[in-house]
Write a structure and sequence with these properties.
6 strands; 148 residues; alpha/beta; Nucleotidyltransferase, domain 5
């Protein structure tokens, strides 16, 4: 199964929530509020990893969103949100799965502009506007995945 993943409300915009969605066949959404992102950012600053806040949060949100589908996925297309960081993002997502006993071939993760006609784009935008998501996470959820 192939899925596309899109984001609305960049993680670094801590005054807005962030929603990540996937679609194609199955679909799902994950949301973290601005307040929870601010808590996370404060924790990353406290431990001296300010630069890691955005990318590690993005990686964990994708991991939490697709983890129950990963065994059925043969192609994951992620919208190009952070050009220049894509190899790092891909490696970290794969590492999160390996840490939890699931081997993922990094070749199935690709980055492309998915565009406004994508079902993932429509789903992420609708969820961002309505604030109703399939999964809602808080700062503690993100940190527990990173530091368990």
């Amino acid at each position: 199964m192939k899925i596309e993943i899109d984001q609305s409300g960049k993680i670094e915009q801590t005054n807005k929530p962030t929603v990540i969605a996937f679609s194609n066949g199955k679909s799902g959404t994950i949301l973290i509020t601005s307040i929870e992102k601010q808590k996370l950012q404060k924790e990353f600053r406290r431990i001296g990893k300010t630069q890691a806040f955005v990318y590690q949060t993005f990686n964990v949100l994708i991991y939490l969103l697709i983890r129950k589908y990963i065994s059925k996925l043969d192609l994951i297309i992620i919208d190009r949100e952070y050009p220049g960081k894509e190899n790092q993002i891909k490696d970290h997502i794969c590492a999160l799965f390996v840490k939890n006993g699931i081997k993922v071939d990094r070749k199935i993760i690709q980055f492309k502009e998915i565009g406004k006609s994508s079902k993932a784009h429509n789903l992420v935008w609708e969820t961002f506007r309505n604030r109703k998501s399939g999964i809602k996470v808080n700062a503690r959820d993100i940190l527990s995945v990173l530091y368990e």
